[in-house]
Design goal:
The chain is α/β, with parallel strands linked by helices. It has 10 helices and 13 strands. The strands form 3 sheets. It has a 6-stranded mixed sheet, with helices on both faces. Helix 3 packs across helix 4 and helix 5 runs antiparallel to helix 6.
């Protein structure tokens, strides 16, 4: 493999997809009541949801530079020529700083990419990167593809309460909604790596309906000649997520696949139980002049 693709656990890629494409994943950490766990390895999203309901202190932390360096050296020893390392928004975490520090310690070129996203918005871009790497694309062109995939996509999410985002300091411009938080069910979005308010809705039922409507409208407006990839993500809200998958299957005819994904412990710690999110990435984002890229 000429180019290896690395990401972090907040991409929430289904393990079978990551393994199929040789994507290496570095876990972030969740600290519950003073005990640190590696996301997806030592603690589940459900356990974090229970901790939040019980008002136990929950926080998150980035991987260490040493953990990135160890992986980069393993890949270097395996004979890769370049590494493309794609991570969650620098507005949300210092993970990318750890990756950059490690990149300077290994003998191959490491392209550290701030996806300006998280969840499957980043995950689909990582998958596109891995497919391009398999087809022989070089690192610099894979980075461009990642940017196109994220920039051309849509990420909309519903939270039952803004309190968890406020506690974790990730609320961004959505802080403007806090004064009326008890009387609304907010829809939020990710814009250039940070959270912004999208719409104030009075009830959960109406908010979920608007989540679907806005997703369908955003998808229809996309330049996606090859169709789109869709992911419905949730934390402790499986039934509502399954229902949304069924509805989007009917209302987004351009969807090539619709994945149902549980949000992991790290993002779950900040958004709280009951969260639903929809990521849509255009498959056409990969249609760029890359020598040997997947089509």
């Amino acid at each position: 493999m000429a180019v290896a693709v690395v990401t972090d656990s907040t991409a929430y890629l289904p393990p079978d997809l990551a393994a199929r494409h040789g994507i290496r994943v570095v876990p972030l950490h969740v600290v519950v009541a003073g005990t640190s766990y590696e996301e997806s390895l030592d603690i589940s999203a459900g356990e974090v949801a229970d901790a939040l309901r019980d008002f136990r202190p929950v926080s998150t932390s980035r991987p260490t530079p040493a953990s990135f360096e160890k992986l980069y050296r393993e890949l270097t020893d395996a004979g890769v020529d370049e590494i493309v390392s794609i991570h969650l928004s620098a507005q949300m975490s210092a993970t990318i700083e750890s990756a950059e520090l490690a990149a300077g310690q290994v003998p191959v070129r490491v392209h550290v990419v701030d996806s300006r996203a998280l969840g499957m918005t980043m995950g689909f871009a990582v998958l596109a990167a891995a497919e391009a790497a398999e087809a022989g694309a070089v690192g610099s062109d894979i980075v461009k593809l990642v940017r196109q995939s994220v920039d051309g996509g849509s990420a909309i999410f519903y939270v039952d309460t803004l309190e968890h985002l406020r506690r974790g300091g990730r609320i961004g411009k959505a802080s403007a909604l806090l004064g009326s938080a008890l009387s609304i069910k907010p829809l939020l979005t990710l814009t250039d790596g940070h959270i912004e308010p999208l719409e104030r809705v009075r009830t959960a039922t109406k908010a979920l309906a608007r989540l679907e409507e806005r997703t369908v409208a955003a998808t229809a407006a996309m330049d996606a000649p090859d169709g789109v990839d869709v992911a419905v993500q949730h934390l402790d809200s499986l039934e509502r997520a399954e229902q949304l998958v069924e509805r989007l299957t009917d209302s987004i005819p351009t969807a090539r696949r619709i994945l149902l994904v549980e949000l992991g412990a790290v993002v779950g710690a900040h958004v709280g139980p009951g969260t639903l999110a929809v990521s849509v990435n255009p498959r056409g984002a990969g249609r760029m002049p890359i020598v040997g890229a997947a089509t």
